[in-house]
Design brief:
Blueprint (H helix, E strand, L loop, with lengths): L2 E9 L3 H10 L3 E8 L2 E9 L3 H8 L5 E4 L6 E6 L9 H12 L3 E6 L13 H8 L3 E5 L4 H11 L7 E4 L4 H7 L6 E3 L12 H27 L6 H11 L12 E3 L3 E4 L3 H9 L2 E3 L2 E2 H4 E5 L6 E5 L2 H4 L4
Parallel strand pairs: 5-6, 5-7, 7-8, 8-9
Antiparallel strand pairs: 1-3, 1-4, 2-3, 10-11, 11-15, 12-13, 14-15
């Protein structure tokens, strides 16, 4: 069964019927938002049943939208949090991908500015590597991007999409070794992206992120995960009551190859390892439980089939 990411938007009236349908079909609700009289469900559903969900939602004023960014966590990386190096596109990119289902975190570097001091420290590197993809939002000058990008990308293992004011061809020419994605003509400007051409550029960024993530999904499909991250999310929700008391957004953040669990590592790591998924198989049997460099959270990295010889 192939699960695909979608977003369901509809009225709050009888929306529980849609939730029950998705769960009965073997799907998973990743996030649920109630906004006034509207409900937004970001979920994974069987590919063959998308039309059924769309048909069932029509009488309830519901609509089903393909959302390739659901179930991903994206790092938006900027040189610093100072006003001179925090261009509005970074904020808008982080918000735009969030609207399309992704969980985004903005990471401002401590020493990402200036050719003399530019650098990336161990904590920044580790935090970026905890995400599915990193979007680097740099400035206006080719020489600055060419020099600093080689430094602030050191140790980054996740795919990178680079945004900057030079056009795409210029970015491809100056970056060596190349990164996975490029979006040009996204420079620093002191206003929000609200004009039609600026919104089109945000759509271009999302398209490039989606292209890179689809390539990563294809690689995962060749050697699948031992358990679906969305299924693991449901198991933890059912067996760890403390997760329902977490007030942070998305207490369980689904990633492409794991989860971020927003509970203290020292207290709950051993609890998570012992949780049974099915037939005596525990989370510790199919995944690594690791301390996150982001606060005191937990990172779960699911093993591949080639490592465990099981898919549950």
């Amino acid at each position: 069964m192939i699960l695909v990411p979608i977003t369901y938007r509809g009225g709050i009236y009888r929306h529980n019927e849609i939730i029950d349908l998705i769960e009965d079909l073997g799907g998973y609700i990743v996030q649920k938002h109630l906004i006034a009289q509207e409900v937004v469900l970001q979920c994974f559903v069987p590919k063959d049943d998308v039309e059924l969900i769309r048909t069932m939602g029509k009488p309830l004023t519901g609509d089903v939208i393909d959302s390739p960014l659901v179930g991903t966590e994206i790092a938006v990386v900027i040189p610093s949090l100072e006003i001179h190096h925090l261009p509005h596109p970074a904020c808008d990119i982080a918000e735009y991908v969030r609207r399309l289902g992704a969980k985004s975190n903005m990471i401002g570097m401590a020493r990402g500015v200036g050719k003399r001091i530019a650098g990336i420290n161990d904590e920044e590197r580790d935090v970026i590597n905890e995400h599915d993809i990193a979007v680097y939002v740099l400035g206006n000058f080719e020489t600055c991007i060419e020099y600093k990008m080689q430094i602030i990308r050191r140790g980054i293992e996740v795919p990178i999409v680079l945004c900057g004011a030079p056009n795409k061809e210029a970015l491809q020419k100056i970056i060596n070794p190349p990164v996975e994605g490029y979006v040009g003509n996204v420079g620093r400007f002191m206003h929000r992206t609200k004009e039609s051409d600026e919104l089109a550029k945000l759509d271009e960024i999302v398209a490039e992120i989606t292209r890179v993530l689809e390539k990563k999904r294809e690689e995962i499909a060749k050697d699948p995960l031992s358990v679906s991250p969305a299924r693991l999310m449901d198991v933890i929700r059912e067996q760890v009551p403390a997760i329902h008391e977490v007030t942070s957004p998305t207490p369980l953040t689904v990633q492409m190859s794991g989860l971020r669990v927003k509970l203290p590592y020292d207290t709950y790591a051993s609890v998570l390892r012992k949780i049974e998924i099915e037939d005596g198989i525990t989370i510790g049997d199919v995944a690594d439980i690791l301390p996150s460099r982001m606060r005191d959270y937990i990172i779960i990295r699911i093993h591949l089939f080639s490592e465990t010889n099981m898919v549950i």
